[in-house]
Amino acid sequence: MLTMREKKKNERKYLKDIKSISHLNEILTESQTKERLEIEIGCGNGHFITHYGEKNPSTYLIGIEIKKSRCLKILKKVKNKNLYNIEVIQGKAEDLIEKLPFSSIDVVHIYFPDPWPKARHRKRRFFRKPYLDLLSNCLKSGGRVNFATDYFDYALQAKILLSLHSDFSLIKSAPPEEIFLSVYANKFKRLDRPVRFISAIKV
After folding, report:
1. What CATH number corresponds to the domain at position 25?
2. Most buried residue, 52, 140, 179, 190, by CB count within 10 Å?
């Protein structure tokens, strides 16, 4: 078992690899070596992004996560798997999508975001019209938004917003199998709570 000093030393190894939004131009230049560019908003501990990146080596993935501790966990997984098609940005998703170039992204992945279940807190949810407008701006024509939640009210909100938005059309699509590797998905499975998956294409 590692001592506290050894753990801190290991963490320092990965800290320099955590990017900020100020590094976006550098990241986008690097992404041009790949066929596709996708982002995951709120990548948690990195279960989805690392498994998906390993399965799709021709896709460049940008993960955005606000908590440094989670960014470190993701980077450890990235390094352990020797993946060179994933970048991790510590920051707010809103700031990232506002700065992404027009028509640059193939797919946006949003899995199990905080549902903010209380009515007075719903304004804090990521899935709201202003952010859908920004996602539409950065998505390519034919690009997709993939969303998953266990929370019925949030799924309904996302479905309604996408249905009413003139730039999006709902499609039937199976969820990427990697989302079921996450801590949350496994928890919901144990609790027998259904995962609701919604996908929409930019028209």
Report:
1. 3.40.50.150
2. 52
